Amino acid sequence: MSATSSAGAAGGAPITLVRGASWIVAWDEEQNRHVYRRNGDVAFAGGRLLQAGGRFAGEAADVIDGRGRMVMPGLVNVHAHSADEAMTKGLFEDVGTPALHGNQLYTYSQLLEDDPEALAPCTRVTLGGLLLSGVTTVVDLSVPYEGWIGELAASGMRVVAGPLFREARWRAHGWHRLDYEWDEAAGQRAFERALAVLDEAAADPSGRLSGILAPSQADTCSPGLLREVQGEARRRGLKVTLHAAQTMSELDEMLRRHGLGTVAWLEREGLLTPDLILGHGIYLDHHPRLRLRTAEDLGRLAAHGTGVAHCPVTFARTGMTLDSLGRYLRAGVKVGIGTDTWPYDMLEELRQAILCARITSGDVFDVSTGEAFHAATAGGADLLGRLDLGRLAPGACADLVLVDLEDPAMRPLHDPLRSLVHAAAGRAVRDVFVAGRRVVREGRLTSIDLPAAAAALEAAQRRAIARIPGRDPWGRGLEEIAPRALPMD
Ligand SMILES: [Zn+2]
Fold first, then answer.
1. Whole-number mean pLDDT of the chain?
2. How far apart are alpha carbons 443 and 430 in whole angstroms?
3. Where are the transmembrane segments (predicted)?
4. What pLDDT was estimated at residue 160?
5. CATH code for the part of the protein at 75-383
């Protein structure tokens, strides 16, 4: 694309220029991969990139000094929950339910009462943290609440809204048995509500919001509903995401119900498609913890073009991870990276994705930093069907991150992505642009009052903790259920 020279405008829109960036992570269209470029310009206007590398010949309305900076594409987070996860921060990191394979999902989450006042602060804390770590696109899977779409729009982020719905609810019976309470009519109503919310997202004037169909879990939705969802997704041209193969308890249940693991069951029901993204796709039949006698699920996912949203940190906290990121990629499975929950640092998540893969495989060569970075950018964007995201190429969305190469955590500087992922993480992110708008300036959010949101969330967590004895079957308080990291003196 050639630059115009008329008073710093491209098609009338003012041009922003990062002049002389020391490093650029640019997109090589022919090779379909990121490449480093040195000492070049990055220009954008009207929310789109004009140029990434080389000398920009036009005039810019806004010029940013790129010396000592790396310009890289904004990160694409394919799986997060903004409305509730942040509420549990600091509470349950050291506990799990032994009889449910050490998971916390089914028992501990039931201890916190829904709090309407916590929802918006939770969303702000989540999206604010992600922006500060260089995320420009997030798939937000939340039970929709009044004002949710407005919060997403106000964040300044590019958000793929996934309003959750399901037909069954989990009930942990006596903290040892997982029961399912089915209410298909309620599930249908929630599905219809989700469709209305998707309409709301699509109509948002910011142009940064889009939608994804998000039936909650493979074990809480009937095949009938999932087929309805698939039809609706085709009609709307949207993707579908579904928690599947995420815990060993889920696998127990699927084997009990169908005699099949989750992925084999989805295939049998005709639900494995290229438009489907599994969150988190850990317990496939080859996983060594399961001791199943087959290893066919990876081939199934590759053959159907079904993707996986890999969120290593939250699972690693309970001693679990998929086996292994490199193995999935070599099998031809499309993988994107998500944060699911806190610490809301996508670069930290990326580091853990690499470490978990290498520990699980016992192999330093299982996945490289470049491959993992691809998954966290263009790979995730591909899953979402957005070839204009996660890459710096002319015509792509102007979603980009400026990294401070002079931050001590980045030095000594030989390979900036390695320094960023393996050492500095979110600390070195200085500026973030979404659709050409600066939403992080010199390390500070311009769109979200993060301290105010954090204070409101903390107050909500305190209220929730006070109500735990009323929700625990034995009337216990938090200190008994999940003692602090150290005893109080
Ligand atoms: Zn999730």
1. 95
2. 4
3. none
4. 98
5. 3.20.20.140
Q: Are 306 and 276 in contact (CB under 8 A)?
A: yes
Predicted confidence (pLDDT) per residue in 100-145, tens digit: 888 878 888 889 988 999 999 999 999 999 999 999 999 999 999 9
User: Does the structure show a pLDDT above 70 at 5?
Assistant: no
Strand residue runs (E) in 95-176: 135-142, 158-165, 168-173
pLDDT (mean) for 158-164: 98
**Structure tokens given for 427:** 């600390």
Give yes or no on whether 9-73+395-444 and 75-383 have one common fold: no
Instruction: Please tell me the distance from the alpha carbon of residue 294 to that of residue 360, in angstroms, as a whole number.
Output: 19
Enumerate helices (H) and strands (E) in the chain, giving the number of each: 16, 21
Measured in Å, residue 243 CA sits from the centre of ligand 1 at: 6
Ligand 1 centroid – CA 250 distance (Å): 14
Calculate how far, in angstroms, residue 343's C-alpha sits from the geometric centre of ligand 1: 14
Cα of 340 vs centre of ligand 1, distance in Å, is 5
Helix (H, G, I), strand (E, B), or coil: what is residue 174? coil
Q: How many CB atoms lie within 10 A of CB 336?
A: 28
Residue with tokens 């890289």: 72
Q: Which residue, 164, 162, 151, is CA-closest to 206?
A: 151
Instruction: List the chain domain ranges.
Output: 9-73+395-444, 75-383
Q: How far is the CA of 279 from the centre of ligand 1 (A)?
A: 6
Distances (CA, A) of 370 to 64, 312, 374, 420: 27, 17, 6, 12
User: Rounded to 5 degrees, what angle do the CA atoms 479, 485, 489 make?
Assistant: 75
Rounded-to-integer distance, Cα 79 and Cα 459, Å? 26
Question: Which is the CATH superfamily of the domain at 9-73+395-444?
Answer: Urease, subunit C, domain 1 (2.30.40.10)
Compute the distance from residue 259 Cα to the ligand 1 centre, in Å: 25
